[in-house]
Amino acid sequence: MKWFVGLGNPGTQYAQTRHNIGFMAVDLAAKRWGITFKTSKCKALIGEGNVGGTKVYLVKPMTYMNLSGESVRAFLDYYKADLADMTVLYDDLDTAFGQMRLRYQGSAGGHNGIKSIIGHTGTQTFDRIRLGISRPAPGFPIVNYVLDTFSKEEFRGMPELLERAVDAMEFRLTHTFEQTMAKFNG
Hints:
This protein has 186 residues and is an alpha/beta fold. It has one domain (2-184): Peptidyl-tRNA hydrolase (Rossmann fold, 3-Layer(aba) Sandwich), CATH 3.40.50. The protein has helices spanning 21-33, 68-79, 112-121, 142-146, 152-172, 177-184, and strands at 2-6, 37-41, 44-51, 54-61, 86-92, 100-105, 125-132. The longest helix has 21 residues, at 152-172. The radius of gyration is 15 Å and the shape is globular.
């Protein structure tokens, strides 16, 4: 079993914001793999399917970004899941827009969703696909930036970034995360 957690905020007012790029990635994976988000439990929307012989869960926490760890913890406990099988997809200010960085451990780096997951799992070691949204101009408040919609130019670049993210997710189903990092980083 593999499970992918896309971070974001619930509600239509956040649907196309930078902070919801993790939701966008798992939504695209669901579309590509024919998975529907049918279940609402573990404080999340959950889609379940089989991809190339591997049981897959797609998880979208409905707790709001800063409490994402509550949903991850609930999923771990309810499904008796293994943290080593989880990959989290989320927005990253320190990665240029359109770029993707994969890591298997590290601090939250100021990301409150990751901070919450670390707090609820007790570890900084879990697989991550960081989707670059770049930093705002100096003096522009971070919270306003991440909760704002993408620019028209960024929207044009979104499909390529999201497709690469789903390609990495798919590759991860049959390869180690180290192999996935080697193929998709840089």
